[in-house]
Each structure stands twice: as C-alpha cells, then as structure tokens.
Write a structure and sequence with these properties.
Elements lengths: L8 H15 L4 H29 L5 H4 L9 E5 L2 E2 L4 E7 L6 E6 L2 E9 L6 E6 L7 E11 L2 E2 L4 E7 L4
Parallel strand pairs: 2-9
Antiparallel strand pairs: 1-3, 3-6, 4-5, 4-7, 7-8, 7-9
Amino acid sequence: MRNIRIISSEDRRILERQAVASRSALPRRAHAVDWLATLPIVLLLPIILMSAGTMFAGSWTKDSQANTSSASAPQLSASPSSVAPGASIKVSGLRFKSKTAGVLTLGTDRAHAVPYAANNRGSFTVLVKVPTEAARGSLAIAAIPVIGGIDQPAAAATVVNVTAVA
C-alpha cells in the first residue's frame, strides 16, 4: 500500500496565496523589459515571411521578371517558320500566366492584331493570317498581355520569315 500525501484545505489556501503573491511580485519594470526584449523578434517575423513569400510565390512582377530563368519564362513559337504573304500560321504560347488574355501583334502593325487567351495551364494556340501586304523578310510576332484594358510589356516574341509570293 502506498502512502498518499493529502494536503489539508488550510495548507492548500496558504500555498495558493504564495503562488499568487509570487506571480505579482515582479515589478512593472521587469514586465516592460521582457516586452521590449521580445519586440524586435516580433517585428522581424513579417520581414522573414515577406522575403520567403517572394522567393517561393513565383508571382509575375517586374522585380521577379529579371530573376526568372528562361525555363519558366513565357515562350512563343510559330509553325511553319517560313510563310508567304496571305498564308496562315499556327502560333502557340507556353508558360504564360494562367487565364491571361492579350493580343498577338505582327511587326509594329496593330491593325492585324489577333486576340489570344491562355488556359488555366498558361498555354494557347491561335491561327494567324500573315497580311498580304507583309514585306519579304523577317516578321516579328509578339504576345502582349492586356490587363484591365491596358497593354503590358511584351511577354514573349518569335520571328517568322516571309517569303516571296509563290
């Protein structure tokens, strides 16, 4: 049989009063010092979280564009790579921001711009007709995202060769 120590109710009240007295025995200055020592750590936490968020978010901002590798940058391709004026080419985009829309421009001419819309995986395919008045030589095709009705900087570009009329 074990000896179990049983405390009397009077002893319990004395111990409770001592515990309460020891908790409130710290001066206010000690509480203020503790709080001030903890403040820099508390203020540092949002900075750490924000820097970790920019490293792992992969968001498409001007600051992160300079740091992204070409493997994750949007790509534009055209098939066939050589075409006669008036013919159609298939333009495909990969790695664009999900569900973005914009226009494909042919050279500097906005009159023949063709709209595109990336799917939830960031890809699209559009059939583009090369203008009949296109000059022989290289023709740049650029994907320009449009956000809120405002043209953004070109996200990607490719070049096709316009040949003489057959």
